[in-house]
Design brief:
The complex is a heterodimer of chains A (331) and B (242).
Chain A (H helix, E strand, L loop, with lengths): L10 E2 L3 H19 L5 H26 L8 H17 L4 H23 L4 H20 L10 E2 L8 H24 L1 H11 L1 H6 L4 H27 L1 E2 L1 H5 L2 H13 L5 H17 L6 H15 L3 H10 L1 E2 L13
Parallel strand pairs in A: 1-4
Antiparallel strand pairs in A: 2-3
Helix pairs in contact in A: 1-6, 2-6, 2-9, 2-11, 2-12, 3-4, 3-5, 3-9, 4-9, 6-7, 6-9, 11-12, 11-14, 12-14
Chain B lengths: L2 E12 L2 E12 L3 E5 L6 H9 L6 E6 L2 E2 L5 H7 L1 E3 L12 H11 L5 H14 L15 H14 L4 E5 L7 H16 L3 E5 L3 H7 L2 E6 L2 E6 L1 H6 L1 H8 L6
Helix pairs in contact in B: 3-4, 3-5, 4-5
Classes of the chains: A mainly alpha (331), B alpha/beta (242).
Chain lengths: 331, 242
């Protein structure tokens, strides 16, 4: 075998300088939020980007790694929105308690549903997750306590300022990336990476597929919920359709596919592109979904591994990598 | 010599279709145990039952003296059942090293630091050491088959199940695989090997079983089994005395 192959074929850029760059970028973003350097409008985009990155990371963990193509993540978005609304408007609790409640409710629902959903795989799992989310939408549409279809307003005094919402979104976003990255560096992450490539083979070499799936499903529910909670605080009101609509998951699929499924950097890139595209296409209401769909198809055709996936493969580098080397560390 | 694996009157199948009929056999520790049989004779079903992918309707499977009939697949792997896939299923986007590392960490239940050495020695044993940083998806068939074995070895199996590892290879490559199996045996592994290539079965196994209609038709010395009237009839469809 040629020695060329023995050289590190992929450069992993996760080192101290990379960490410093990340900290610098995050610090700048915090400064931009909290010092009100950005306009309100810019901050609205930033909030959207941060929250979509979080949701994208979670959907990527589900679909890109654990082989669970859920079409029902909007379930946890709706539950989170209503949890925050009920906590503040009905129970007169603080916003923080509302967000904690949204995570708690989602985790409990995820644990209960896993008993049902994990009996299914592939397409059946996807459809089942969607059906469950739809069922919850119908439930909230006819539930008197939450004002049925007319929606529930989030009531807190004083209402949080946009820069506060922006900073919290950024925090959640950074946490979600850190959690995914650190998870991938553990033995569980090694198992998940194997599951990404082949579920059957992963279980044949001793990976406890069920436990890995459950862990990922619960983490995804929790982070999706908290980001959705913040989203609805920014909106001020939650409706059954705006909470439990399939369009949430469609966005996540777009973000992950465009950015690169099975990579940590993919959903970050995908979310930024998605938010800007959405804004651009807002001027052509009838066309926006058609254009987004067309872009997705083009990317699948020409860049099947997404933008970051393809870029990393062509340029032979990886960031936020789960890669393990057989080489000793200092060599 | 102690018995590492025993099937006791195992009945199993898919839905209402019964494939295995009262299958019984035993494998001694340190042996290479060959399994042949015409298509549809239940070889793969036997493997699936052994691996926990299907549940027998009756009968018992004993592994190293423990009843594993109802044990789940990943637990069996941790107990020491290592398998290869007939059609290789590598983790394509992971390097060979990572492929075997997963096996050593999860199947071998080692921490990554210790798993490293096991992974590297499995790769050395299977002749893949120099290619360890290549992505598994870039491998040719022979190396994919070797990787299947390396990955199974990574789980530190007491018993290694080879499912047609020589199928689809050239004659020279088949010889390579036979050499590898001899090395594995010398290293003290017990092996159950399903294969259609007669040369491998006669040349590499200590004991050979021929299956038909979900039963063990005959088992014993490989050469005697091959020359027996039952096997001749099953494979050639004629009785020489007629």
């Amino acid at each position: 075998m040629s020695d060329k192959r023995l050289q590190r074929p992929v450069r992993v850029l996760d080192s101290l300088p990379m960490l410093i760059v990340c900290i610098a970028v995050v610090s700048v973003l915090y400064a931009v939020c909290l010092l009100r350097i950005a306009s309100n409008n810019a901050m609205r985009y930033m909030i959207q980007i941060f929250l979509y990155i979080t949701m994208g990371q979670m959907w990527n963990l589900l679909s890109g790694f654990a082989g669970m193509t859920s079409l029902g993540q909007q379930l946890y978005i709706g539950l989170a929105g209503y949890s925050v609304a009920i906590a503040t408007a009905k129970l007169h609790l603080t916003l923080g308690v509302g967000l904690v409640m949204s995570v708690a409710v989602s985790v409990v629902v995820a644990l209960v549903l896993s008993l049902l959903l994990f009996r299914m795989e592939g397409m059946y799992f996807s459809i089942a997750t969607w059906v469950v989310a739809e069922a919850f939408e119908k439930l909230f549409l006819s539930w008197k306590y939450v004002e049925q279809g007319s929606g529930l307003t989030i009531r807190v005094v004083p209402y949080p300022k946009i820069e506060e919402i922006c900073a919290v979104s950024l925090t959640v976003c950074v946490m979600s990336i850190a959690v995914v990255y650190l998870l991938l560096r553990t033995r569980t992450g090694l198992g998940l990476t194997a599951m990404r490539d082949n579920l059957t083979a992963a279980s044949a070499v001793g990976v406890n597929v069920f436990n890995h799936k459950l862990l990922v499903y619960v983490i995804a529910a929790a982070f999706t919920a908290v980001s959705a909670g913040i989203f609805f605080v920014n909106k001020g009101i939650v409706y059954p359709e705006s909470g439990f609509g399939i369009s949430w998951t469609v966005s996540m699929i777009f973000i992950v596919t465009i950015g690169g499924s099975g990579t940590v950097s993919g959903p970050i890139t995908g979310a930024v592109i998605y938010v800007f595209l959405q804004e651009l296409l807002a001027h052509y209401p009838g066309w926006s979904n058609i254009i987004l769909g067309a872009i997705t198809i083009l990317v699948i055709f020409f860049l099947p591994k997404g933008i970051m996936g393809t870029l990393q493969e062509k340029l032979r580098f990886e960031i936020f990598s789960a890669k393990r080397f057989s080489f000793a560390k200092h060599k | 010599m102690s018995i590492i694996l025993e099937f006791v009157n195992v009945n199993a199948g898919y839905g209402r279709i019964q494939i295995l009929n009262d299958l019984s056999f035993a494998v001694d520790e340190g042996q290479v145990y060959g399994v042949i049989g015409p298509n549809g004779s239940g070889k793969t079903t036997m493997f699936n039952a052994l691996l926990g992918l299907i549940k027998p309707s009756s009968g018992k499977i004993l592994f190293d003296g423990i009843d594993i009939t109802r044990t789940s697949a990943n637990v069996r792997c941790k107990m020491g059942l290592g398998r290869t896939f007939q059609v290789p299923k590598p983790f394509e986007n992971m390097s060979l090293y990572e492929n075997v590392l997963v096996a050593a960490v999860h199947g071998g239940t080692h921490r990554e630091r210790f798993a490293r050495e096991i992974a590297l020695s499995s790769l050395r044993l299977t002749g893949l050491y120099d290619k360890r940083e290549i992505k598994a998806g870039e491998l040719a068939l022979l190396d994919r088959k070797r990787l299947e074995i390396a990955r199974a070895l990574g789980t530190e199996p007491k018993l290694l199940l080879l499912d047609e590892v020589a199928a689809g290879l050239t004659d020279a490559e088949v010889k390579d695989i036979m050499r590898l199996v001899a090395d594995l045996k010398a290293a003290g592994h017990s092996i159950v090997w399903i294969e259609h290539i007669i040369e491998t079965m006669v040349g590499s196994t200590d004991k050979l079983m021929c299956m038909a209609e979900g039963r063990c038709v005959i088992s014993g010395n490989p050469r005697e089994v091959m020359e027996s009237a039952e096997v001749q009839r099953l494979y050639l469809g004629v009785d020489e005395n007629e």
